[in-house]
Amino acid sequence: MSVASAPGKIILSGEHSVVYGAPALAFSVKQRLTVNFTPDLLPRLSWFAPDRAHEMALEKFSSLRHKLDAAFEGYLRGERSISEIFSRPAELIFYTVDVARILGNLERIPRGKFDIQSDIPVGAGMGSSAALLAALLKLFSKHEDLPTLIEQVRHCERLQHGRGSLIDAAAVTMGGLVKVEQDQASRLGGLPDLFDRDWYWIFTGTPATSTGVCVERVRTQFEQSDIWSEFSAVTNRIESVQKEIEQLSRAIQDNHRLLNRIGVVPARVAALIEQIERMGGAAKIAGAGAVSGDAGGLVLAYLPNQTPDALKLPALMRWGCVESDGLGVSLGGDL
Prior knowledge:
Ribosomal Protein S5, domain 2; 2 domains; 4-stranded antiparallel β-sheet; globular
């Protein structure tokens, strides 16, 4: 058996604006996704989801990759929406494995089966999809060059997110605190100790709209807007005041207001953030958010000297302490 794993992530600042060249900050978290591969002799690759098993004959992988690449080109030409790329979600998994084969200069895809185990909440904006793709690419290619792995995670993610950024791919691959700007990713080290207490993630529910749909909706309304320079300024402030809690708290509040202006903070989530601010804290969505429905995915919250229990959250929401981890994608065992 061989194993690869990758962490989840939380965006500190720069979601959406990073697509337009503005800087973004994100950090990896202790929650991880793990892929376990077991070889066998059958001429197929299979993986097991909680609801069913998925499998594909080895000779079909290349044609699937070409089909999905062509579908994405159709999306870029405006001939289809990003939600029409896949006929079934499992296709992204098999596509990524074939990309890993090419990346690792493998003659053929290994025969066998794998399962996926994860404690990263799905649909929460914590990078579960990017972590899965990073783990698969690492597992099947054994590639060591991090910039290349990051670019390949992004390449695969484009099929579900459209014109996305490097931020998710960089954070789950490199680990630690990561900055992305103008398609360049750099690791800034670990998350400052200031985040070790009074910082929480709150999962407000899976958004009704996907990241790809949110990115495209924002693009249609704000692509030519000057608001992205305001996002850049607030992200630079957050980077420079990470050890000064009062200034950091104000910058997080300003970031929230910018996200609210571009329409990705559902009303119920905005009300929750207002409640946090009234209690002396600060909060913002930490992901794509949503352009419809009540749920906004993940919220990053600072609540001084209290926990989210004080918010009396709805039963479907859950929360946890922010726990950063500097370990990025990693591999164990042999194929």
